[in-house]
Write a structure and sequence with these properties.
Number of domains: 1
CATH architecture: Orthogonal Bundle
Low-confidence stretches: none
Largest sheet: none
CATH topology: ABC transporter involved in vitamin B12 uptake, BtuC
Helix content: over 70%
Oligomer: single chain
Radius of gyration: 19 Å
CATH class: Mainly Alpha
Number of helices: 14
């Protein structure tokens, strides 16, 4: 039986929720600026891109796969926006999303038709996408229409477009995974691919869905980044690959597949954003941010893999 029950998956969200609450309490106590309108607005704007890319990574992990191309896809999306938004306007957004979808489909096809391990195939996709991005935008530049910025980041308050979009995205994925046949199929495939196939769940369909969604959500995250910096950057997404995997694992998504929930991923993404924010507010060397994230990633792996072993 796959481990996709709502109750068990919500329980795996508790560590991420506890970490987020602890960070909020500590930072509020140590920095009077934490609860300022400008800082809360900054938190919501930074939560959106990491939340979107983490959701896409979680979808892949639910199915027992992994996608290490998400950072490269984010960079590609910023380049597309920077080079086309001035001339194409809103059409630049579906163009960037379509590029992300194509990248995901390429990975899915490589996994199924060429029988390449998902980790290796996604790394190959990342290398190809990075090369294409460097060809079309060798260095940071280009220009994103300021109207996009006004629309997304114009309101300086916590309950603004970035937070609303984040909440909607997580709610939609939570509903899909827990109350639809597709979600149950993804959980079942991640828990036991052979049993899922025997019950009529084709691997190609699942891979096309999860890698396609991962590519599109990574592209959406890149679109958000490009709007925030009003330009493109061929390397800006590189750090987000580890953040996406870390948020998924910390949120209780099993590397082996078949377990996890969007709720946990939301709180884990929030925790990573809070770590960055806390270090910045306390004026701590940013190099320690990566150390902290790496340690949290290791602890999350140890905690959830131990829990998995005890269940069996």
């Amino acid at each position: 039986m796959f481990e996709g029950s709502l109750r068990s998956n919500l329980l795996t969200s508790l560590p991420a929720l506890a970490l987020s609450a602890l960070l909020i309490i500590l930072t509020t106590y140590m920095s009077p600026n934490f609860l300022s309108d400008s800082n809360l607005t900054n938190l919501s704007s930074r939560l959106l891109p990491i939340g979107l890319v983490a959701l896409g990574e979680a979808m892949v992990l639910f199915a027992g796969r992994i996608d290490l191309s998400v950072g490269a896809i984010m960079s590609l999306a910023t380049a597309i926006m920077a080079l086309t938004s001035a001339s194409l306007g809103w059409l630049a957004i579906p163009l960037a999303l379509g590029a992300g979808l194509v990248c995901g489909v390429v990975t899915a096809c490589g996994v199924n038709f060429l029988r390449i391990n998902p980790l290796v195939m996604s790394l190959a996709t990342a290398a190809i996408v990075k090369g294409v991005t460097m060809l079309i935008l060798p260095s940071p530049g280009g220009e994103v229409d300021y109207a996009f910025y006004e629309m997304l980041f114009g309101a300086e308050r916590l309950l603004s477009a970035p937070l609303i979009i984040s909440l909607i995205a997580f709610v939609v994925i939570a509903i899909v995974m827990n109350w639809t046949r597709l979600g149950r199929s993804i959980y079942a495939f991640g828990s036991d691919p052979r049993a899922a196939f025997a019950n009529g769940i084709p691997a190609l369909k699942i891979d096309l869905v999860v890698f396609g969604m991962s590519g599109m959500l990574a592209a959406a995250a890149g679109i958000v980044l490009s709007i925030r910096i009003l330009s493109g950057d061929p390397l800006i997404g590189e750090s987000y690959t580890l953040d996406a995997v870390s948020a998924a694992i910390l949120g209780g998504v099993a590397l082996q597949g078949g377990r996890g929930n969007a709720v946990g991923v939301f709180f884990a993404a929030l925790a990573l954003v809070l770590i960055n924010n806390t270090f910045n507010l306390l004026d701590i060397d940013t190099s320690y941010q990566n150390i902290a994230k790496g340690l949290i990633f290791i602890l999350a792996l140890v905690f959830f893999m131990r829990g998995k072993a005890e269940e069996h």
